[in-house]
Each structure stands twice: as C-alpha cells, then as structure tokens.
Design a protein that fits this description.
With about 325 residues, this protein is α/β, with parallel strands linked by helices. The protein folds into 3 domains: about 100 residues, 2-enoyl-CoA Hydratase, Chain A, domain 1; about 140 residues, no CATH class; about 55 residues, OB fold (Dihydrolipoamide Acetyltransferase, E2P) (Beta Barrel). Helices cover about 45% and strands about 15% of the residues. The protein contains 11 helices and 12 strands. The strands form 4 sheets. A 5-stranded mixed β-barrel has the order 8-9-10-12-11. Helix 7 packs antiparallel against helix 8. The protein is rod-shaped, with a radius of gyration of 35 Å. It holds the Pfam family NfeD_membrane. Keywords: Membrane, Signal, Transmembrane, Transmembrane helix. It is a multi-pass membrane protein.
C-alpha cells in the first residue's frame, strides 16, 4: 500500500489480506471494509446483514490463510475500523513496512512464501522491475466513475436535454446531453447513489423550466436552488469514505446552473415584454406618410406597404401619420406629433 497518503479500504483491504506478502508505506492506512450498496437501489436490513456476514467470514478466512490477524479483519468489515501502517504491522495485519519499492524488494529478498502446497524463497535482489501501467480504457472509465465527474456529467446532460427540448432541431445540445446522461448513469452503477438525492436534482431542473413559463415571482427559482443544493448533498450515501461531491465542485456547479436558468428566464421575459416588430400588432405605433388626403378616409404608406386608412381629423397628402389600431385590412391613424 503506497505511496504516503494512500489507503487500502473496502476492496483494497481484501486484496491486501489475500496477498502472499502484504506491505505498507508509512503514512498509509487500511480498513473501512463495511459493504455499501452501489447503484440507485438500497439493500434492506435482511440483505445487508447477509452481505456483512458473508464478507466478514471471507475476510476472516483470507487472514487465517495468510497467517494474519483474523479478528481485526472481521472488525474491519463489521465496524469499518481503520488503522495506520505502524499499527497494522504491530497487529500483524500486514507483514512489513517499507518506505519505497527498492526497500520493499530488499526486505522481501530470501523471504519464504507459501504457494499452494509448497514453500518458495523469493529472490528479489537486483531483479529488473516492470511497471504495469493502466490502459487508456481503464483510465477513462476510472475518471468517469469519480463521484464529482459523475455529478458534473449529470448536470450537463440535464441542461443539454433542456436546450434540445426548448429549441428543437439544434441537435448539438441534445447529443451532448444524451451522451453525458448515459455516462453519468454508467458511473452511478458503480457508486452508492441515493435515489432521493437524484430525484431532488431532477426536480430542481423541473422547477427551473417551469419558472420560464409560469409567473411565480422567483419562488420556483428559489425552490430549484434549494432542491439542487440538497440533492447534490444527498446524491451519494456516505457509508464509504470519499463518496461525496466535493464542496469545490458542488458550490460552483450549483451557482452556474442557477445563473444559467435565471439568465434564460430574464432573456425570455425581455422578449415577451418587447413590442412586436412584425405582423398586425407590429404596425401599432408605426409612422408613415399620407399617400392621399384623408377626410376621413384615404391611403397611407406605412411599413413599406400601402394601407386603406381612416383619420378622425383631416390629414393632407404628404403629412406624417401614426398608426393607432388595425381592424382587418383598414388602419386608424392620426397626425404624427
């Protein structure tokens, strides 16, 4: 278990217990192997007890097979206890301590190891070291399964789908949104997701979308912000260390999504309040020129077109007029002030 700051928790503890030689670097820790459910579904009490008992027995059998501390291994599963490297060595959870790989190779030289039914002597003095690097596929999937990346992918996916539904035919937001959501749900299969937290985040987006079409004086936006914040905090069950959205990711994400939908709402509100510039309603308030005398009827030239017009006061040919209203194919005007 290395380098300093690393930990062998959950499955890492079982791998360490199963190793023929278990070593830890100073500043590392091991334990916290209590099982947690992954995905959206949560285990009931009966199933949870069954899994805990099974894993505790498995951890104990591994420790006994390698001559290590079986009692501590069982407590690591049942009680999620965790200990540092020096304590693990003292309790015989691991075999030795080593600062780095060269020191480890020196300490395990001539060490007897039992393989199957026979004992072999390790010869590690001066042997070449081959580092097995992670493949590209493994690195990509490991990053996608990070709780923070999965959270961001879900937010991008929901925002992209909203764009596509609000503006059909744009295509790109819908494609990006669909891909992001699929990747997020792939990650959720390997993470302890809280179903209520996921629903709260989806509900927040519903509130933001409704704010655009319903006059709520900001109440729906406020509800969306609270729902998004609470859902983000509750998205992962916290039984396993590190399974939570980091504050450095959560706060900027909530602010960006909130500002995004508030900005869209403001733009839509401005467009609805703006006077129409086309069609019949777009003529009201427009100015034009009397093409003939109006007394009270005549023709005017407005908005690039000739219209039959009516004026309550006489208007001479060539004078400026202003449109008051439109009825069918006839407009009512007055002299422009």
């Amino acid at each position: 278990v290395s380098p300093k700051g690393a930990r062998a928790a959950s499955a890492g503890m079982f791998i360490t217990l199963a190793a023929h030689v278990a070593a830890m670097a100073p500043g590392t820790n091991i334990g916290a192997a209590h099982p947690v459910s992954v995905g959206i579904a949560k285990m009931d009490k009966v199933m949870g007890d069954k899994v805990v008992n099974d894993m505790a027995a498995y951890a104990r059998s591994l420790a006994l097979e390698r001559g290590r501390n079986a009692d501590w291994a069982e407590r690591a599963v049942r009680q999620s206890v965790s200990i540092h490297a020096a304590e693990a060595h003292r309790l015989k959870v691991v075999d030795l301590l080593a600062e780095d790989l060269p020191e480890l190779l020196q300490k395990v030289h001539n060490l007897p190891v039992k393989l199957n039914k026979q004992t072999v002597i390790l010869k590690t003095q001066g042997v070449p070291v081959h580092i097995m690097e992670e493949g590209l596929r493994t690195r990509i999937l490991k990053h996608i399964a990070d709780p923070n990346i999965a959270f961001i992918l879900m937010l991008i996916g929901l925002a992209g789908l909203y764009f596509e539904l609000a503006h059909p035919g744009v295509v790109l937001p819908g494609v990006v949104g669909a891909l992001s959501l699929l990747l997020a749900f792939y990650a959720f299969q390997t993470l302890p997701v809280n179903f209520v937290g996921l629903l709260l985040i989806i509900l927040a987006f519903v509130f933001f979308i409704l704010e655009i079409y319903v006059t709520s004086y900001g109440l729906l936006t406020l509800g969306g912000v609270i729902s998004l914040l609470m859902g983000s905090l509750m998205l992962y069950r916290t039984g396993d260390p590190g399974m939570a959205v980091a504050w450095s990711v959560l706060i900027p994400a909530v602010l960006i999504i909130t500002l995004f939908f508030v900005g869209i709402g403001v733009l839509i509100l401005h467009s609805q309040m703006r006077r129409s510039m086309s069609g019949v309603s777009g003529l009201i308030g427009e100015r034009g020129e009397a093409y003939t005398d109006l007394n009270p009827e005549g023709k005017v030239f407005v908005h690039g077109e000739y219209w039959q017009a009516v004026s309550e006061e006489p208007v001479a040919k060539g004078e400026q007029v202003e449109v008051l209203k439109v009825e069918g194919l006839k407009i009512f005007v007055r002299k422009a002030s």
